[in-house]
């Protein structure tokens, strides 16, 4: 029996343990003999795992709610080639009894200092007085700054972890600066402002208490419209921010997902909006791809498992034998 309250990614077949997880979903099912059992989806910051409760399932079903923290006694078993939990006991627990809630929420690697420096330098270099005043005022607000630093940029796909919004935003600002250096006819200030604020609606779209999930407004309205409302609300009345520039900035927010079928109510219709769309695609897709490749590290074969959101497998690179342990590793690319 393990006594370390293990994380999901550390579980091995045969482990018997007590642990804390967030209950993502639960479903009451029946065996062929018409005996009820419970199918559970449990999660922590390292991933999620399926579990089954065979005893007193109907009682547990009435006592449990998705989204709450639960304490579980379980055994890790193999089922169809994957680890699954045979849950022996399960009960809800108050969040204050758990202590460190960070065990349930994935968090970015590294600190935010470098990203803040990127944003501050970009804002300081702006020549448009209205855009500079808008962004300076926002990030001088301690509450807004704190929310922006900790918020995720997605639920499960790209930058779907605490700190992901700031990390993604700083990356977008760096990419935008490189593109402007090459295409000199772009408006640096409006593109930079769009890069900083394009996902500001995520602050209202996502919640992250025991798990990263959508708010009611996030599901019903979505981050693009929420972001446009935010920019319009905070942009009106800023000294030096004329209506035309504010409208161009709103267009960047509204069109940054590029296509109507992807959620943007309008397609990009300015050079800066077109650039922002492609940079967002680049940064979000590569973040997601890098995370999928990292998850597949150490596994067999040259390819990852099929990834539904990408509709493909990913090539992990040529494999070489680990000189010490004999395991397979991806060979480094030239220049690494």
Q: Helices and strands in order, then pairings?
A:
Layout: E1 16-30, E2 36-44, E3 47-53, H1 57-63, E4 69-79, E5 82-92, H2 95-98, H3 113-124, H4 129-140, H5 142-150, H6 164-182, H7 188-197, H8 202-205, E6 206-208, E7 212-214, H9 216-220, H10 223-235, H11 243-255, H12 271-296, E8 319-321, E9 328-330
Parallel strand pairs: 3-5
Antiparallel strand pairs: 1-2, 1-4, 2-3, 4-5, 6-7, 8-9
Helix pairs in contact: 3-6, 6-7, 6-12, 7-11, 7-12, 10-11, 11-12
Describe the structure.
There is one protein chain. By secondary structure, the protein is α+β, with helices and mostly antiparallel strands. The chain has two domains: 8-101, Nucleic acid-binding proteins (OB fold (Dihydrolipoamide Acetyltransferase, E2P), Beta Barrel); 113-289, Hypothetical protein af1432 (Orthogonal Bundle). It is 40% helix and 19% strand. The chain contains twelve helices and nine strands. The strands form three sheets. Strands 1-2-3-5-4 form a five-stranded mixed barrel. The protein has a two-stranded antiparallel ribbon with strand order 6-7. Strand 2 (36-44) and strand 3 form a beta hairpin. Helix 6 runs antiparallel to helix 7 and helix 6 packs across helix 12 (271-296). The two termini are 42 Å apart. Residues 322-336 have low confidence and may be disordered.
